[in-house]
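Good morning C.,

I know you're traveling, so I'll keep this short. The sequence:
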Amino acid sequence: MPIPPVILAGIARMGMTPAALIWGGDTHQELLCGYIAAILMAFSSIASYLPQMKETGKLGFAAVFITAAGNIIISGQQYGIWAYGAYAKEGLFVDITGMLVGIGMMLGTILLAFVTFRAKVFPLWNVLLFVVMLVSFGVPGLESWFALFWGLAYGAMGFTIVSGKYRNKEAAAANSLNLAS
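The tokens, ready to paste straight into the viewer:
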């Protein structure tokens, strides 16, 4: 059985941490992992929404949409830095998009963790990994480790989806049945 994209997205995002620690930040190795992760996360964010679709409603859709859009923009930024080096890090456009993506991704991630917690479909440990990821973002010295926790949060949700070990299996099954019809 092939590995689902949501788990691959988590693995690729986690790959940024050893790449940054070994070769440094914004190296080709780190950016390649980030680029692959951003593309996979943009599309697989929807997978985390589907099992809890009814429970999260419009707020859940907004969280997933913001997160997916942010990942699409991040993939463009990472490709630009990867392909064009420091040139792609300079300028007002890069500064503004970077700020908007940062705010949007943080808001989307906080909303995703909040609606996932409220929906009670995924196990609590999935939500706690999002909290650890968000906390690691603000802790000095953990900048290079943030991607590891981000990937773990996505990979854990992917594991839950693949294994079917939901906290509320009836809700997940009902949402899945409605998708099939």
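Safe travels,
E.
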